[in-house]
């Protein structure tokens, strides 16, 4: 199985790294082409994947193509690869933010090409991501194989395209929010005498374990919080102070802003 990447930015590299880490695909079976040879050719040399000379060459040599360019470049890229797709309708996994399957079909001028819209987060690089997906009718037969590929990168969830912006906020952008939270905890630890390295390790492990507990438990996150917060204890004092400082409203405001920004491109 050969997988081609058109675009070799951060998300493309995260997916490649996840598949290589899981040994899902051999490096020589991953083909890439990007806009800047000085960027993707050293990456190819470092990882052992194959750099090709054009986007069309990627399509011609691939069993699946991951479309990972900036949305504003999509039309030019599609114009370039259209002749190759006409001769060989390779399934396309689209990472194009804000570009629907219907729009992509319109740009391609056909509904016959299997299309799967894919929205991962950067944690796929360590096989701990979550990826949302939606597919057009032409992708019905190949969708199980695509989902199996995506599951090598972490969890998957089928979502209507109308919910993709919400997914972007809750999964795509939220790692940055979580990193900010870990850093805030770490800096508080430094305030009370810990080294930044020790404080960051403690905070990161606490967040990692807490996330695993939520996934493994049938209790809601707040039910789990209540189990930590003893009556009249230190934890409930901290929770109330954080809420008084606007903790939950600030999180919701961050999600609101992320969704609004994502929908600007529509």
From TrEMBL:
Top-level division of the source organism's lineage: Bacteria
Molecular function GO terms recorded: pyrroline-5-carboxylate reductase activity
Keywords, sorted A to Z: Amino-acid biosynthesis, Cytoplasm, NADP, Oxidoreductase, Proline biosynthesis
Record InterPro entries: 6-PGluconate_DH-like_C_sf, NAD(P)-bd_dom_sf, P5C_Rdtase_cat_N, P5CR_dimer, Pyrroline-COOH_reductase
Pathway in which this enzyme or protein is active: Amino-acid biosynthesis; L-proline biosynthesis; L-proline from L-glutamate 5-semialdehyde: step 1/1
Predominant subcellular localization, coarse grouping: cytoplasm
UniProt-listed Gene3D superfamilies: NAD(P)-binding Rossmann-like Domain (3.40.50.720), ProC C-terminal domain-like (1.10.3730.10)
EC number(s) recorded for this UniProt protein: 1.5.1.2
Stretches assigned to the Pyrroline-5-carboxylate reductase dimerisation domain: 161-264
Pyrroline-5-carboxylate reductase catalytic N-terminal domain ranges (all copies): 2-88
Signal peptide residue numbers: none
Function description: Catalyzes the reduction of 1-pyrroline-5-carboxylate (PCA) to L-proline.
Record NCBIfam families: proC
HAMAP family, A to Z: P5C_reductase
Name of protein: Pyrroline-5-carboxylate reductase
Protein's organism: Lacticaseibacillus suilingensis
